[in-house]
Amino acid sequence: MTSGVLDAAAGAPPARTSGGPTASDSPVVATVVAPEAGETLELWQRRLARARAVLDTYVTQAQYPFDSRPISEKPDLLLPYRGVPMQVPLRGADGTVALAGALELRQDRFNVVGDEGVHLFLSCAQAGNGEPCAVAMAEARVASAEQAARFPGVPVAFADNGLDGDAVASDGIFTTHLVPARQGFTGYHGYIETGLQVRLEGKLFAASFMILYTPVPPARFTGKVRERLAAGSLDLMVELDVHKPGHYLVHGRVDDALGRSFAFLAFNDQLEAGLREVPLQLFGKLVLDQNAQAPFTLRDIDGHLLLEDADPDRELMLTLAGAVHRTAAYPRSSFSEAVWDSEEKQRYVTEFSKDVAQAEAAVARLGGRP
Amino acid sequence: MMMRRLSMILLAGVVVAAVSSEASATNYSLWIHGRSPSFTTAKGNYTSWPYWGSSATAGGVNKKAVNWGGEDATSISGNNAYITRALDCYCTGANWCYIAVHSAGDLALGYALANSGGSTRSVRNASPASDGTCGTTGATQVGWNIKWVDIGGGAGGGSDLADAAIWSSSPLVNNLKTTAARALYDHNQTRSKILYMFAAAKGTAYSGILPGQDDEVIAYHSSGGVASWGSFCNPGDLFCDGTLTTGSGATSNGKAKWTNHTVDFRDDGEAYNHFTNGTWSGIMSVVRLDMVAYAL
A131 Cβ partners below 8 Å, 6+ apart? Predict the structure, then answer.
């Protein structure tokens, strides 16, 4: 950390000519940075620390391509995104907390496609008199004002009866199974919000769930995956039947033979219509560094068509949940130790190295030890 | 023959060096604003600063205002072309950028980085037309040249005020709902650029809605870059799920941050709120000091 607390406590750092007001549009051209009057050794030491952190982070992470990563870098994407469990305070209409406790909301998916449904779960955690809560009203409605007239809100029934996705009857967890295609949203594309009011100790409290709905997927995964070793890495070629050409993003997760999740693979590029193969590259050095043992299992593949500059900005594909493909049993010797390289990487390392050298020189000129 | 080929290679090197020196390297400081419901900022105008404050105030080397609108009627994706235009203008070729973002600007930049940060870009000449598009040089490159990013009151994890219907439903407000904001893009995909998070804690008015510490609009779960929703606080507060740690490590209760999100400033003194007020105020006053100190 570069200690913003200290920055703020110390007041404004000395102003630099190069960082000052830009009354004209003539840019200040970066040259070798020399310490200016008022600039302290301490400030340049902090600049050097940041420059080194920026370079070190880049060099360490750029051992692998940006689309073939340790899954530890994706703490919220170990599985396809399903929404975040939330606790909503028990507040009155004026926003102030009216009762101790919270409404607890959970959903089993965020992205919903075609005939899919989503389970929404609600429970109450209160520190009051222990009186059970009840869902007084719930309604699913489109989040688009322009579409609201065409797709009016529909009542939704939450129940705690052990049926239709409600795991255990009378456990205090109320559940509904929202299926947009069967509940009036056929043809709608976008966010659907389920707002509800919960009665507790004679008062009403509000909360809402959100999902993203695509009525017709733009492409589908056929389930076929072809694999090929190339240059010390393993390419997993995932087949798609593309109905709508365009900019697609596809993500997959990989477990090793011991069941350890270790890699997150991504594709982000244009696809033409028809049967297409998307390469998800399992980078060789990543396999070796993670000490991952083949055969590998490619699992939980999700994807969408990105609609650039539009709202909603995507059409979702049906996710391939669970294990999709098991690879051959490759020995470690199949994979390369070589680090990833590219023009982009060289450009970054060159620039960040230059920044470190400039800061080191400035520290040295001010009598410090770089 | 061999000598001639070597000479040609050397000559080519001299030509490249000459071109490089003519295309002088320039660093820019881009300022990407947040939601702006009271007025739509001048889209594509890089010299308009009413969202922030006086244009004469220092904000890092060669500062540029990335005005993308910020109006409720248009979503993050709907206005994202103004972000990518600015990045194309000032962060390609020999030019490099430092970036400061506020609030929903976190979503706007993160969205661009995750979806387009590895795409092939036209190298542009930093001379913008009125719509914010700059002229091309004929060259291309992969991604943008970004050194690091400062994020004040970042809305990458959404605002609970959007969930609680404090703001009227709209395309931008829908993006700002916590579940939707976290689903909008892969927040970990920064292509190894560090995002320095500045999290403020002077909030009072909506403390019943915003979990844990907040700046009146954004709670620590978002401004601290935590990859899961929860109530996170300053050290010593017993009524939260955990403490927001400084640096890139997990919160005290083990909740990971998004990759390359590092908390550079945690408002232990509860001294800063969310609002710039057109006077470079609130948490962005701290970000501004950081830009002045480090964006050279």
Answer: A200, A201
